[in-house]
Write a structure and sequence with these properties.
The protein is mainly beta. It has no helices and eleven strands. It folds into two domains: about 90 residues, no CATH class; about 60 residues.
């Protein structure tokens, strides 16, 4: 693995890759991007090139990897991976921590709001009407709850 960069970064950095359709999913080439939004400030971000196993057709010769490290007794890495073509879909990401529970409020360009909650223990989920879960994904559109996924 060849290290391309290693640097201390400010809170909320992101990296965007231009994606090549190596499996021929689209009939003609389109501009596809993959953005990693680092919601919490990592101590160090390393972008490195590595050679994946060549055990299947279409596997690229080389891949770029994102490695994050942080020093301390307690670390929670939170990244939001955003695939898009043309304009970005995510307008804003807000993180709220409550004990061992992390909630993301993700606002999309369309105005839709997604709430993603993850916890190490069963917790009430305010965006889901205070139902209890370890993981929850709730979508609101036009001020109304549209979908809800709870995992105990």
């Amino acid at each position: 693995m060849a290290i391309l960069t290693g640097a201390l970064v400010a809170p909320g950095p992101s990296l965007t890759w231009k994606v090549k359709d190596t499996w021929g999913v689209h009939p003609k080439p389109i501009d596809v991007r993959l953005r990693v939004n680092m919601v919490n400030p990592p101590g160090e971000v390393i972008v490195a090139d590595g050679d994946p196993p060549q055990n299947k057709p279409g596997v690229p010769r080389r891949l770029t990897y994102l490695l994050q490290s942080h020093q301390g007794d307690s670390t929670t890495f939170v990244n939001v991976i955003e695939p898009y073509s043309g304009e970005r879909v995510i307008k804003n990401i807000e993180r709220t921590d409550r004990g061992d529970t992390v909630t993301l409020r993700i606002t999309l360009a369309s105005g839709r709001v997604d709430y993603i909650t993850s916890s190490n223990s069963l917790q009430p989920i305010p965006s889901a009407g205070s139902a209890k879960a370890r993981f929850a994904a709730v979508t609101e559109e036009n001020g109304k709850r549209q979908t809800k996924l709870l995992v105990e």
